[in-house]
Structure formats: C-alpha cells, structure tokens
Amino acid sequence: MTSTPKLKAPPGTCDTHMHVYEPGYPARPEVAKPPVAPVTDYLRLCKRLGIARTVFVQPNAYGADNSCMLAAMKAYGPNARGVAVVTPDVSDAELDRLTKAGIRAIRFMLLPGGPLSWDVFDTLTARVRPFGWHVNLQIDGRTFAEHEAQLRRLPGNLVVDHVGKFLEPVPTDHPGFRALLRLLETGRTWVKLSAPYEVSRSGAPLYSDVGVLAKALVNAAPDRMLWASNWPHPSAKPEHIPDDADLLDLLLGWAPDEATRRKILVDNPARLYGF
Question: For residue 230, how many other CB atoms are within 10 A of its CB?
Fold first, then answer.
C-alpha cells in the first residue's frame, strides 16, 4: 500500500507499537508461523507516514528471545526504544544490557499464545522496576475490573495496548471500561490508540464501535494517550490488512484538536520512553 495519510505527522511523531520478523530467527513451535516483516520494510512505512521515532515490541512468536528485535532497533538507530519479554530467571546483568540497548518496558501479553502469565506478573514487575522499566499490558479489556486492584499496586507506569483490547467492543458504562477509566485517574496509566481492526464489529474504515471508546479515553486523559501502527498487523487476515495511512488518519476523528494530536503523536511518547 502506498497511500499518503491526510494527517500530516508533526516532527517527532512516534509509533509506539510495532513488530519485526526477520528470516533466521526461530519462532516458538506453539504459535502460528510469523510473517516476514523486516525492518527495511518498516523504514519505508516510516517515510510514507512521517514517523521519526519507534517503540519496537517483542512479538509472541519469539518468546523471551529478544535478539531479532534488538538487531532491528540497532539498525533503526538512536530513535528506537523497545518493549521486551523476560522470564523470572533473568539476571540483573541482562536487564542492564537490555536497558542500555533501549528497552524501556516488559511486555505482558496475557491472551492465548502469550509467553508469560499472571502468576509471574508481580515477581517480574518488581524485578524490572529498578531499571526504570514500565509494564506494557495486553489483556481482554472486559476483565479490567477483575485485575484493577493488582494493577493499581504497580509502583511505576502501566501502558495498555490497543484501546484496551476489548475483545468485543463494549459501551462506555461497561465495568471493564469503567475500571480502565479509574486506572487512568491514577496518573500512571497510558493507553495506545491502535489496532481497532482486531476487535471491531462495525469495521473499516472508521471502526466506529472502537472509536467511541477511543474518544472517551482521549477526553479522559489526553496527556497519556499514545498512537501506534501495530505494523505488520500479524493477527489480521491477508485480505483484511489495513492501510497504515488510514490508521493514522483515525486520529482526525478520535482527537479532532491539533494540539491534542501533537501530544499523542510526539509529546506523550517522548516523555514516557525518554526520547
């Protein structure tokens, strides 16, 4: 796809969630074969959309072997940051190495196929906190109320994927969404406005059911909203892969104010990831 977005990305625009899959890195046998999506392809996307900074996120396919992502971050350059997966036996030396390489968070993808689970959540969040990492979380948003107390106990920042990832879009008075709003009130929770196509029932191009939630989140905490492409859209069927330009343009409706969009695209991620 080669379309140009209507939204002109301001200088310093950051994509806070994407994945790289390179040949030669073995995938976990229990997950679906990943696509081929090298960093060289992603760099072309950055040029098309006006992305200047990127947060690489460790894919489920590689488990706790972060080597593919780290190599891609190095190739990308100094404007790369990362979200890694580590296990309870990780050493302080390895956490220090990852931090120096640009890692700023631990990923907990707690849906089927994720390499970590809730039973190591408290242990690992405590391990990575001294290194300045925050927690990047993906769960079924409908369950936020069940986990709210545990998430409130986190000493650092919590970053929530994909507009909360409500596996079927819910009304704004749903207990899970109300719990997410309460987490935002702590001042330590951030949300990525990304990947509406993964859960939307109303569909492209506006994903209006997810858009209702996105607009409510922007209204609640514009200083802690982030944008992400979720390139290369690994969970989407080939015929339903969205145009990344259209995904950026969703912000024109979700955050109609230009100053707010600048916060989402530039200022907020710069503060959170240390650009």
Answer: 25
Query: If we measure between CA atoms, which residue out of 268, 236, 198 comes closest to residue 10?
Result: 268
- To the query of whether residue 136 is one of the catalytic residues in this protein, the response is no
Is there a contact between 68 and 82 (Cβ–Cβ < 8 Å)? no
Q: Which of 60, 157, 230, 268 is catalytic?
A: 230
**Would the pLDDT of 239 be above 90?**
no
Q: What is the pTM of this model?
A: 0.97
Nearest CA-CA partner of 107 in 242, 16, 7, 11: 16
Among 135-139, 175-179, 238-242, the minimum mean pLDDT is found in 238-242
Residue in the block written with tokens 């993808």: 109
